Amino acid sequence: MADTDPAGPVMDRDEVDRALARLGAEHEAIETSLLALQDHAGRRLLEGAGLTGVTAERWTSTEAAITLLWTYFDAYTDVLRTAREIRARRRWSSREDLVELTELLRGEPVTVAGSAAATANAPAPHGGQAGPGVLSERWSLSALVDRMNELYASSLDMVVAADAVWSALPARIDLLSAELRRTSRLAHSVGVRPGEHPAGDDLERITRTLKKLREQVVSDPLAFWRPAEGSSAPGGGKPDTTVYDREARALEDVRREIDAVLAVRQDAEKRIVRLRDVLSRADRTLAEARTARGEVLAKIAATEVPVVSGPPTALQEQLSTAAEYRRHAQWHRLSPLLESLEQKAEDELLRARESLTAVTAPLAVRAELRGRLDAYRAKVTRHGLAEDPLLVERYEKARRMLWSAPCDLRAAEQAVLRYQQAVAELLGAAPGVPGQGTGPDERRGPGA
Known about the structure:
Largest sheet: 2 strands, antiparallel
Helix content: over 70%
Order of helices and strands: EEHHHHEHEHHEEHEHHHEHH
Structural class: mainly alpha
Oligomer: single chain
Shape: rod-shaped
Keywords: Coiled coil
Distance between the termini: 130 Å
Number of domains: 4
Radius of gyration: 51 Å
Number of strands: 8
């Protein structure tokens, strides 16, 4: 049976040497990591920051954990140094040396005051004995390494997360704030101010939000950290930029609106001149329609002629207001007014043209009847039938109606139709006129 002690079977010299080499490499790696954590920019910022909220709570426990890490590391270092000294006593270690080394390397040689672990708010796993009311905790070297790795990972995770938020958000907020100030100056120059224009109110709100956001990010960065699901990497996750992104979009919307106002300032005079021209054409068209209505009433009888309204004075008043806004550089008021006026002016011109068309419709009908009568007269003349008494009678009757004032359109249309019918019947019966008949096309005649 092998010799044993409370730490288990006594290690031989080769086992001791291998264990010391492994523990020495772990010691070097742990020391390098702790020094890197000590020098981490995020940790230095956390030490000097006025923290609030979740970050203040996390940093209190993390700071205690880092202190405990160094306490554990110092204890680990002491045990490792002692083991190396014992092994260095003799080239060939005695049994007593091997028993002592076995106890150091495999037992629980590390004792740490329980108050230190309790301050770190971290229960002691892996066989460590610590907790409320426990005066001290005992660790094996392997369990202590595992414990230090856990504390290091959680501490680094907190430091990296805070540093990531501080590295990302404040700089972006500052850049957006600088753009906000430039936009605000530009908005002020075109009359977009809080209380006078919605975009001015938006700029004021964005300014307040960004200021508050920056204060919160600086004092409580972990409130803006979104951990990655399922990630075990230190600092696994990304800064939460939801509020920043929303305000950036809002500022871009305001900037586009101000650009539109600037565009109004650049071409306002041309647009006002164009509006005057459109409204002037509408007025002239309405005047022409009123004149035409008088002519129609004088020349055409037994027909309804629509009334022609006058030009709307409201549009002229709004155009005068637009010119006033331009003179006083009130571009934010001019912009929506011009857009509304341009649409209304085009609608007014269309209405005037439709009114002229409706008023002159009876004259167009009379002109069409005159043309149709002359076309049939020319047709019978080509066939040598112009002197036919019936045709002459019906032609003269229709002509008197169409060229007299006022003209009864209904009676004149009937007279023209009777003339067409007589022409169709005569041409259908006339010898030597091939292809003439009284089919539907011939009865309708030209222009029917």
